[in-house]
Specification:
The structure holds two protein chains of two kinds. Chain A contains 13 helices and one strand; from the N terminus they run αβαααααααααααα. Chain A is mainly α. The longest helix of chain A has 27 residues. The radius of gyration of chain A is 24 Å and the shape is elongated. The two termini of chain A are 34 Å apart. In chain B, helix 3 packs across helix 4, helix 3 packs parallel to helix 5 and helix 5 runs parallel beside helix 6. The chains are: A mainly alpha, B alpha/beta.
Chain lengths: 298, 257
Amino acid sequence: MAQTAVADSDTGPSLKELARSHGLTKAGRLPSLPEYTRHLWSYRHFIAAFANAKVNASLGSTKLGVVWQLLTPLINAGVYYLIFGVLINTKQDVDNFIAYLCAGVFIFGFTQSVVQAGSQSITSNIAMIRALHFPRASLPIAVSLVEVRNMIASMIVLIAIVLLTGEPITLQWLLLLPALLLQTIFNTGLALFVARLISKITDIRQLIPYILRIWMYGSAVLYPVTFFAERIHGWQLALVESNPMLIYIELVRHALMENVELATSAPLLWLQAAIWTALVGFGGYVYFWRGEKGYGRG
Amino acid sequence: MADQREPTVIADNAHIVYRIYGSVAPGANTPLASLKRIVTGKKSAAVREVHAVKGVSFIAYRGEAIGLIGTNGSGKSTLLRAIAGLLPVERGGGIYAAGQPSLLGVNAALMNDLSGERNVELGCLAMGMTPAQVKEQAPGIIEFSGINDRGDFSSLPMKTYSSGMSARLRFSIAAAKKHDVLLIDEALATGDAKFRKRSEQRVRDLRKEAGTVFLVSHSEQSIRDTCERSIWLESGVIRADGPTDDVLKEYETYVNK
């Protein structure tokens, strides 16, 4: 043991000063929220490229390729129509049940797939996280972008279904855009939230399918929203009707269809949707940012 | 003596502890034991702590290439990951670094379903390059990796590559950017002799571009060829730090004992 460390412990306190005087930063320091946001913005090309890569990788091995983006929502709607529209008659007194059902299935499916993919966005890219330095929020955000692409495809299908079932084109259709925008921000916040949660507590991944299923039944996807008011009252009804997915679905149905019965008035729905979007979008982002330095561990 | 040189990495009495989940002793993960833990609020026995680096201090300067040697499990890779900011320093002063150190390891996987070209693009963007820079650098990266030497492999998915080929591509991507601090963990070991020579040249070039390179390797030859300074780490403690030849001599007598 000839030489030990060049810098021995007797120079200990000066090492910190030396680091500071040369402008070195502490490894593993958490950047401030504005700093992190700017950093994330400078990685926007990476986020887009990663989202594109994910779509190509998932469709690359299929023969039909992009056609699946249109086929998947169609098949999905067909299956639900067969079960709930034909076999179990949950139509009740909805005029245009096919369009009503499809709006619910597609809008809920949008959030559902963001949650499913978002929950794996950290854990399945751990090797990349350990190798390269990019703001980790890029991954859940890219997941959300991928699903926006799928959502646009399913909206094309939905609009075709709505038109074929005899709904007129009205000015109200323009409301579809802000509704989807709000939902997209909500979804991104949710993706960020589950990404961190599941990278910390992997056990929760086992529960996600059940949580999503309960959530779907509580969102009036498969039956009219009036179903709840007929069965539950008071705080229980208030709880179900404050469900953000129910609100987003209602907004889309309201935008595209005539004579739909809403849970509450449309302005109130918009207000609730805006609150949910701000809460989950910002909250999810902050929650994810707080854990930024821990994602490569484990 | 060191004052006129510019430090790029400073470790100040750094202790690194990492936690391993799921390595359970038999009998500790029965439903009954789990229930007991939940009721009593005790920490899971499945979490074990490993004190991998115990109070390491050193200063690395601009333009240096430093070899990290030591027997398996001596804490070399852990130290690199802490320098890169991927593992937190548990206690002690901490580790300070210029810019953002980049860790280049053998398991630095990109997306295996995508072609080599797309991976180059993605990797460069992930390192913070602009799309224009990527376009400019991509052909050079593919050429350096040599994956196109036997036909057009760069347009095939990476899952079809041999392990040596994908390691070469990963190294080429990481080496394409100027890093203030580049940390290389056994990454040069997988390529063939021809590529090894080329990549060692690249490491020397990177150093000339005024960066600092850390190299973990079990190949004494590649340490000798690229690093003039070495740090010998044993059980998380620095045993020696100095000119490579001296340190390697000491290390050899220790290993052959």
